[in-house]
Amino acid sequence: MVTIYFTFEPREDLKQPLLAEFPQADFLFDKKLDVEKLAQSEILVTYGEDLKEEHLQHADKLQWIFVASAGIEKMPAEAIAKRNILVSNVRGIHKKPMTESILAHILSLKRVLPFIYEQQQKKEWNKKARPTELNGSTALIIGPGAIGGEVGRILQAFDVHTIGCNRSGKEAPYMNETYKLDDLKEQLPKADIILSMLPSTKETKHMLTREHFELMKSSAIFMNFGRGDLVETDTLVGVLRDKLIEHAVLDVYEIEPLPADSPLWDLNNVTLSPHFSSHSSRYLERSLDIFKPSLKKWLNGERDLENKMNILRGY
C-alpha cells in the first residue's frame, strides 16, 4: 500500500471523498512536516515551503512531490533533482481568481474607485477625478502562460490589444502578437498596461531595470503578479518616486511579508496587495482536482503526470 503524506489538513468535505476514492492508499495528514511520517511516505503533498534539504536525508521512500502551489522557489531543488524525485504542481489553478484580482485592480484604477472610496469617507460630493477607459488600450503580458492567457482572454473582451512576451516568441493563446523576451524593450513603449506573470528563475531575477521603466509610457500601469525578485525594490521605489509611470500594482515582493519600514508603504502611486491575489475558497478543491487524476495514473504505474516540472528550471 502506497503512503501519501499531506503536510496540511484539508477540510473534512474534501478529505473524506479523497479517502473514499483511494482506499488502496494510506493517507497521513499533519499541520506541519514531521520527519518520521515523511520517512514512511512514497508521495508528499505540500505547499512547498516546509520541505528542507535535511528532511530528504530521512525520505528514502519518497518518489513524488505534489506541490499544491505554483511556486517552488523555496524548495531544495538540487537535492530533489539529485534523487530523481518527480515533482508536479497545480499550475493553472490560479488563473480564475488571479484574473479576477488583476481585472479588479485595472478597472479600479481606470474608473477611479480609490478616489470614490476616499470621498465617501470624507462625505464629499466630488467629481474632480478623471476616469479613463480600458477599451482600446494595449496590454503587454510578460509570461503569457495559463494565467496570462486567461487575463488576455478577458482583456480582449474589453477590446484591449494584447501583446505577449515569452522565451520562445511562439504564438500564445489570446495574444494578438507574441514576441521573445529578448524583444521586450521594443514592446514596452506600446503598452498602457504591463503585467508580469514570470516565475522566479536565475534568468528572471532583477530582469527589469530602470531602463525598462524609462521606456514605458508615463501613463502606464505596471503590475507584478509573478514573483517579487523581477525588479530590485530600490529600483522600483526610485521609479515610483520619480513618477516614470502612472501607477504600480504589486502582489509580490522581494521580501515577504513586506517590512513595515519599506518605503513602498509611503508612496501614493502604488497599490500593495499582500500576495493573496490567488486566494479563493475553492483553492484546495481545485488543487485536489489536479492531484486525484495524477494519483490514479501513479497507482497504475504511469509517470507522465499533469504539470510535471523541471525542478532545476523552476517551472
Automatic annotation (TrEMBL):
Highest taxon of the lineage: Bacteria
TM region(s), chain numbering: none
Cross-referenced PROSITE patterns: D_2_HYDROXYACID_DH_3 (PS00671)
Domain D-isomer specific 2-hydroxyacid dehydrogenase NAD-binding residues, every copy: 103-276
Keyword list, A-Z: NAD, Oxidoreductase
CDD domains linked: 2-Hacid_dh_1
Domain (D-isomer specific 2-hydroxyacid dehydrogenase catalytic) ranges: 35-278
A Pfam entry, by short name: 2-Hacid_dh
Family: Belongs to the D-isomer specific 2-hydroxyacid dehydrogenase family.
Name the record gives this protein: D-2-hydroxyacid dehydrogenase
The organism of origin for this protein: Solibacillus kalamii
